[in-house]
Amino acid sequence: MNAICLVVDRLQAGYLGCYGNRWVQTPELDRLAAESFVFDQAIIDTPELPGLYRAWWYLRHACESATGLAAESSLPGLLAAHDIRMALVTDDAALLASLPAELLECVEVRLVESRPATMPAGDSRQAHLHHVFDAALAWLESGTSPFLLWVHIGSLAQVWDAPHEIRELYRAEDDPESARDVEVPRFVLSANYDPDQLQAVMQAY
Prior knowledge:
Elements: E1 3-8, H1 27-34, H2 49-58, H3 75-81, E2 85-90, H4 93-98, H5 101-104, E3 108-111, H6 128-142, E4 147-153, H7 164-168, H8 195-204
């Protein structure tokens, strides 16, 4: 038996069709949701990666002490003890740096290097997210059963380089042309903000 766990940092549930969104098309995620349990009250222990993975891989709440944790009692350690391969494909170097070295000894790690971008990708195959999923698919093609493939994507906090044509799909006729920025926005809207400014962020996201 095999399993795939997909973690996408900063993916807003309200942008998914399975959570009621009718503006953005997410057919594959909606299909997956239709075959799964969909929770609307699931809350993570913490947004900090070390604590979050302590909860996921050690079954220790983020508020609990990290002392006394043994790799053999972790998720990767237990899988290794039962001859189940585990792989971690990620584009987040900070995640790897936050995980104990002895824990990663039980995991096949593939780090997808972030690609600096100054403008949107020419097509979807050139976008950073495509390279992450490409690496995950490559591992699946070479992997042998049984396995757990854990994919952690952090690029929504790194770069928004989707092709400009995709952003234009979500622009109404009376909206200004969608922005071509690729940097992740980091600002607070003023009380009298321009709605077009927020619209541009939503299209890029």
